[in-house]
Amino acid sequence: MAASGVSAPTRTEVLHLYRSLLRVARQFCDYNIREYTKRRTVDAIRDNKNLTDPSQLAAAFSDGKAQLEVAKRQALVYSLYAPKVVNIFGVTNASHSSLGAIWISVVELVSGFMRFYG
Amino acid sequence: MASQFIRQTLTKTKPSTIVRRFSTAAAVASPTGYEEPTGVTMKGVKISGRPLYLDMQATTPVDPRVLDSMLPFYLSRYGNPHSRTHLYGWESETAVETARAQVAALIGASPKEIVFTSGATESNNISVKGVMHFYKEKKRHVITTQTEHKCVLDSCRHLQQEGFEVTYLPVGSDGLIDLDRLRKEIRPDTGLVSIMAVNNEIGVVQPLEEIGKICKEFNVPFHTDAAQALGKIKVDVEKWNVSLMSLSGHKIYGPKGVGALYMRRRPRIRVEPQMNGGGQERGIRSGTVPTPLVVGMGAACELAMKEMEYDEKRIKGLQERLLNGIREKIDGVVVNGSMDRRYVGNLNLSFAYVEGESLLMGLKEVAVSSGSACTSASLEPSYVLRALGVDEDMAHTSIRFGIGRFTTEEEIDKAVELTVKQVEKLREMSPLYEMVKEGIDIKQIQWAQH
């Protein structure tokens, strides 16, 4: 019996997940985890782009949502124990200028749209 | 939609307000006296921030997903897995068994063959000493290599003191053992062959399938220390024909203080327990199983299974970037150990005409290691490099770069820049290098005696 009630996610839902994951990635205080989350999100969305089977899509989507929950919790935990001194690159999540954040968001949005509609 | 997003970003409050919502007290009282706003001062060294971490063979950071799976077992589900009478015990036990299955799945074994220990060192001790003590009537000989981890070598030395015989196989200059030599050394009373899968210092991967075949032929138990190999290369206990395998949690982005021992059931290998007590873990390792650590190790193994391909591809690119970046700018760089049969995340380089201690002292903004973390207390050059036949002076200047899942291209570029700068600075000051540049062959010089 096929899994009933499990439908493939719509494009908007996937985009929303993608943006949420990137947003949560920016909240990590640890440079390495932040970069890894951003990179892994982009690569995972890109790898799953060509899936056609609805049950596979649904599985990948729910996996992504679960990872988003984990990331949200851990971003909070890491911020509670953030060391006072950051690594020698000297960039914390807080010190990302808002202009830079806007630029990154716009680029991500546009590339995300192009990826899914192009 | 985009404008709404931009408005949200512009008015976004900093994450520190999330902290305030939960507590008016300061965030965790930092016990560190060494962190100031302008940098870190420790042991007389001042750096502008925390160093870049490039020492993945010593230990790895805990993956946030692993930490997430561990925290409930510290907060609310804190039962002892051996308590049989209440929910706390039952849920703990379920979690331990799930973790056991996750570890077993990564190595291609059955969950019944996994015993949780306190780390790969304990697993190695149980394997080497436990097996030999159990079969001490008939088997008196152990074969191992010169490049093994200190815990294996120390256990063998302990066995030698008890009267067993140990053969330490030499390695070639590429770090690999000679299979014919191994075949010749096996005797009728050989009780164990112990050869590590991936060396922690030079990153060389031994030909384990062939060794497994030889051991099967002579019916000798084969133990391998797979602490550095787990989650990084494909580990299959059937293909390698191992009877015993030591695994470590903190090398695969899991917590420190936990490890596992794989013990084959068909044909059954028996060991004498090193920890006596209430008979937990099938009598092999008594003591309460630390649920959060074990759950963390299980989650780390499951993650490793999913991410192995992605990580390996990425780390290979980073290793090439590091090596090419350094080789472009300076010459006289030697890679210790075979380049073909190696794990991509380990790069052990020797720089000619540079003194090792001063190189490390100048590289304080990059956390790398020279020699292995276990032996760095002594001033001797690493025994592994000596076994490779590397000259004393080159062995002293070896640096081990460890690349992992979280390393970025930026970090690699910065490490290249700092290393090159430091090596060039030291070579400027080096009279030996001046002589080499003039064309004098250093080895031919007759140093004057006073």
TrEMBL record, chain B:
Organism, scientific name: Hibiscus sabdariffa
Cofactor(s) listed: pyridoxal 5'-phosphate
Key word Hydrolase present: no
Coiled coil: none
Class of enzymatic activity (EC top level): transferase
Family per record: Belongs to the class-V pyridoxal-phosphate-dependent aminotransferase family. NifS/IscS subfamily.
PANTHER family, sorted: CYSTEINE DESULFURASE, CYSTEINE DESULFURYLASE FAMILY MEMBER
Keywords associated with the record: Iron, Iron-sulfur, Metal-binding, Pyridoxal phosphate, Transferase
Key word Acetylation present: no
Protein name in UniProt: cysteine desulfurase
Pfam families recorded: Aminotran_5
Residues of the Aminotransferase class V domain: 53-414
EC number: 2.8.1.7
